[in-house]
Write a structure and sequence with these properties.
This protein is mostly helical and 63 residues long. It has one domain. The chain is 83% helix and 0% strand. The protein is built from 3 helices and no strands.
């Protein structure tokens, strides 16, 4: 496996871990009774996804 593929695997692993933590954070910080009344704010989800992509881009420059 080349250096480039290894970098891709590392960045993908970090991005996946961060996405998993973001989903867990969203689910844990929602009020209990609100889950049946209101769905996820898709703008919040898109903002989180954009911030993770920016973080992955910054990390790729370090590797």
């Amino acid at each position: 496996m080349g250096k480039r593929e290894m970098r891709g695997l590392i960045i993908g692993g970090i991005a996946g871990a961060l996405a998993g933590m973001a989903v867990a954070w969203i689910l844990l910080t929602r009020p209990q009774g609100e889950s049946e009344k209101q769905e996820f704010s898709w703008t919040e989800v898109l903002k989180l996804a954009a911030s993770f992509l920016r973080l992955a881009e910054r990390l790729s420059h370090l590797l």
